[in-house]
Amino acid sequence: MLPTNRDVSFYLKYLNRSCADPFRDCLTKLLDEEPVACLISDSMFYFTQTVADDLKLPRMVLRTSSIGCTVAYSVLPWFSKEGCFNLTKQGRFNIVAEP
After folding, report:
1. What is the rounded average pLDDT of the residues 60-71?
2. Which of 1, 41, 88, 93 has the CB geometry, 3.0–4.6 Å to 48, for a possible disulfide?
3. Using one digit for the tens of pLDDT, what is the confidence trace for 11-49?
């Protein structure tokens, strides 16, 4: 069952909890077919570290920032609506209090 929460961080946590076993199964089948020298994964998918450790594969983290940017961009409309951005030229360095 898919989560119904619209919070992006919730989805990331959900994926990290839900994807380890299917990913391990898929990677195990791949390893049966051909050698894999290293697992390269996005830093937001931290479940891949456990899988790599279990399969004794080195893991490299690719920090693309795309998932992080997606999270940040998803909350920008809320901050704008709440008036947290003061983008006038004379006010661009002013600190805006949290609502």
Report:
1. 75
2. 41
3. 888 889 999 999 999 999 999 999 889 999 988 899 999
Contact (Cβ atoms closer than 8 angstroms) between residue 36 and residue 23: no
Contacts of 45 (CB under 8 A, 6+ apart): 15, 16, 19
3-state SS record for the chain: CCCCCCCHHHHHHHHHHHCHHHHHHHHHHHHHHCCCCCEEEECCCCHHHHHHHHCCCCEEEECCCHHHHHHHHHHHHHHHHCCCCCCCCCCCCCCCCCC
Query: What pLDDT shows up at residue 11?
Result: 80
Token pair for 78? 């809320």
- Let me know the angle formed at the C-alpha of 67 by 9 and 1, rounded to the nearest 5 degrees: 50
